[in-house]
Amino acid sequence: MSSGKLSNAGSYSITYNLPYSFYKFVKAYPMGEISSTAQLRLGAIEFFYQIRNVSVVCKSFKISRKSFYKWRLRYEVSGKRLSSLENISKAPKTKRETVLDFKTELDIKHIREKYIRLGKVKLQKLFKDEYGCYVSQNHISYVIQKYNLYFDPVTAKRIRSKKIKGRGHKKLRINEVNPNDYLSPTKPFFFTTDSIVLYLPYGIKRYIITAVEHEKKIAYARSYNSKSSLSAFDFLMRLSVLVDGKIAAILSDNGSEFAKYFEEACKRLNIIHIYSRVHTPKDNPVCERFNRTLQEEFMETDEYFEPYLTESNLVRANERLTEWLIFYNFKRPHQTLDYRSPFEYYHYKFFEKQKLSPMYPT
């Protein structure tokens, strides 16, 4: 038997996800300087040196024979360097280069500076009218990025950074899924959420984040000084406590407050985050209607709420809002719920047996 690094490392059991000898090897030879993928490949190779059985190695590490032979060949040809087990860049060795000549590039630059607010489609037509030749939209974009020819370079840079960060991350849209598929007896709630911006005297701005259950109409709202993802994080944690952690999914728009820390809260609470389509408020009609109800039945009638919003500490404002939410959830009749309150409807549907009237032929 070969004298690999795993020699005399111990017994192997098919019941382990990974061989016990692999864990002993990792403990004896720390591999913190390489990635977890490279550690897995090294463990498979060294385990093969011990047992000399490719089938057992592939079954225990759940890899194909082709992949194992590829890793082993690369490892041995490199002189058993650990870095050879890392993923190799898949970028092409020869990249495309622009064929735009310098004169045309300067002409595009000139016409872009002249019409700084026009897009590349309109600039393409103006370029053909003025210079009598065709230029592609990609070449126009290339010149704009090369010379940073933006009306507002700071905003353009922020938008580009946001697009780069979002590459490869596909959002789950409400028009692509059925939220009811995510509901279960242990997690029966699907909440829709939104935010309201309030403009008060002397340039004061306050924000109210709202949420309402899609079917049962159980609602929650809270006011904040800033519309940040940290505020949305706090809101979602409070909402989860309110319903005893039984939220299966939540729908929001694409606002910045529903990113970063809000997504972190969704991961912690095991909540599926669904997004509405861009500039499509009809994807979230239930919460939009609740926002109108909140403004008409509470904010426009409560004489203390707006003065409390001007305070830096929003404790008293949230106390007034909570009092109205208690009325909304426990007493206010809802037409869509057969004139029951949300909690009456929830108790009626999930805890009482519905007594259906028999149907008779007319």
Commentary on this structure:
About 45% of the residues lie in helices and about 10% in strands. The chain is flat, with a radius of gyration of 31 Å. It is built from 14 helices and 5 strands. The protein folds into 3 domains: about 70 residues, no CATH class; about 60 residues, no CATH class; about 180 residues, Ribonuclease H-like superfamily/Ribonuclease H (Nucleotidyltransferase, domain 5, 2-Layer Sandwich). The chain has a 5-stranded mixed β-sheet with strand order 3-2-1-4-5, with helices on both faces. Helix 5 packs across helix 6. By secondary structure, it is of the alpha/beta class. The termini are far apart. GO terms for molecular function: nucleic acid binding. InterPro entries: Integrase_cat-core, RNaseH-like_sf, RNaseH_sf, Transposase_IS3/IS150/IS904. This is Integrase catalytic domain-containing protein.
Topology readout:
Elements: H1 20-28, H2 36-51, H3 54-61, H4 65-77, H5 102-114, H6 120-131, H7 137-147, H8 153-166, E1 189-200, E2 204-213, E3 219-224, H9 229-242, E4 247-252, H10 261-268, E5 272-275, H11 285-299, H12 305-309, H13 315-330, H14 342-350
Parallel strand pairs: 1-4, 4-5
Antiparallel strand pairs: 1-2, 2-3
